[in-house]
Design brief:
This protein is mostly helical. The protein has one domain. The chain is about 65% helix and about 0% strand. The chain contains six helices and no strands.
Length: about 120
């Protein structure tokens, strides 16, 4: 049975890395929380890019996809709100600080038990 997740997803990931008996479901749960976190950052970055006049083509290239794909996926989520440039900068600084603090994001490692396929 999966253990309850700590309040801080970064701490949860460090605990999973340190564990010799990390459960695959715990790893998947942590992954899902990180995916939601980064998806929210992606939407805010797209809002900021659109607010400053970047085109869907430019955004698509930055994301490694087509302008059509990115427009279809994000057009409704980016219409109504324009993000303040300072708010976006604060969001990026917080992410950068965490990446600098937690080197596991630069070289993603799986807990030993998961990496061995146990």
């Amino acid at each position: 049975m999966a253990a309850p997740a700590p309040d801080n997803p970064w701490e949860e990931w460090r605990e999973l890395l340190a564990s010799e008996s990390a459960e695959p479901l715990d790893v998947l749960g942590a992954l899902a929380r990180f995916q939601r976190y980064f998806a929210a950052i992606e939407v805010e970055a797209i809002k900021a890019a659109r607010a400053r006049g970047d085109t869907w083509d430019e955004i698509g290239r930055a994301l490694g996809t087509t302008r059509q794909a990115v427009w279809q996926r994000y057009r409704d989520r980016t219409k109504t709100t324009k993000m303040n440039r300072r708010t976006f900068q604060v969001l990026l600084e917080a992410l950068a600080a965490q990446v600098n603090e937690d080197q596991t994001l630069r070289a993603v490692k799986l807990p030993a038990r998961i990496a061995k396929g146990q």
